[in-house]
Amino acid sequence: MHRLVLFILLQFYMVPSFGQYLKEDEKEFYLRKNKRQSTTGNVLVLSGATMIIVGAIIAGTSSSGESSSDSSNGWSANIDVPNIPPPEAVILILGGITTGLISIPFYVSASINKKKAMKITLQPDINLSKIHWSTKAHCNLGLSLKIRL
Fold first, then answer.
1. Mean per-residue pLDDT for 41-50?
2. Cβ atoms within 10 Å, residue 110
3. Across the chain, where does the E strand assignment appear?
4. DSSP per-residue string spanning 37-72
5. Is residue 94 in some structural domain?
6. What value does the CA radius of gyration of the chain take, rounded to a whole number of Å?
7. For residue range 85-141, what is the model confidence (pLDDT) as tens digits?
8. What CA–CA distances, in Å, run from 58 to 48, 108, 130?
9. Given pLDDT bands bounded at 50, 70 and 90, which one contains residue 67?
């Protein structure tokens, strides 16, 4: 008896959860997810590009290419030190490249979610509540062929 009551209660509990499923809600869910992931990808790409540009500007304006003379041993020579960008510029450029690469999975998943939303939209939706059932005889036009045996 307890099992029967428990079974009936569980049936009443599960019926509304299956009855509230709408494809329109699922479509909107995937479209919102697409929008959010596309926005995240755009922010990451733009911040990465900004970091690369700022790093390049810092590297271009730095003047570490100086000539030095070494006369501690009595030798006098002008040594040209190559123009090495400062570490801040290198860090900004590498961070910008990394940030730009991190945005790729966001764009891929946004594309997948957009395709899922479009697939839901293109599927035919048969709603049985909109079909009017009647007992009247309907005349359907057609072609009939009689074969006498």
1. 96
2. 21
3. 67-69, 78-80
4. HHHHHHHHHHHHHHHHHHHHHHHHH-----EEE--S
5. yes
6. 35
7. 888 999 999 999 999 999 999 999 999 999 988 888 766 555 555 555 555 555 555
8. 15, 33, 67
9. very low
Taking the CA atoms of residue 116, residue 117, residue 118 and residue 122 in that order, the dihedral angle to the nearest 10 degrees is 100
Distance in angstroms (rounded) separating the CA atoms of residues 43 and 50: 10
Confidence (pTM): 0.56
Q: Number of folded domains in the chain? A: 1
69 phi/psi in degrees, rounded to 5: -120, 135
- Distance between CA atoms of 50 and 47, rounded to whole angstroms? 5
- Cα–Cα dist 140/43, whole Å: 59
Tell me, yes or no, whether 149 lies in a domain: no
Q: Which domain holds residue 49?
A: 33-62+85-122
Q: Is residue 115 part of a domain?
A: yes
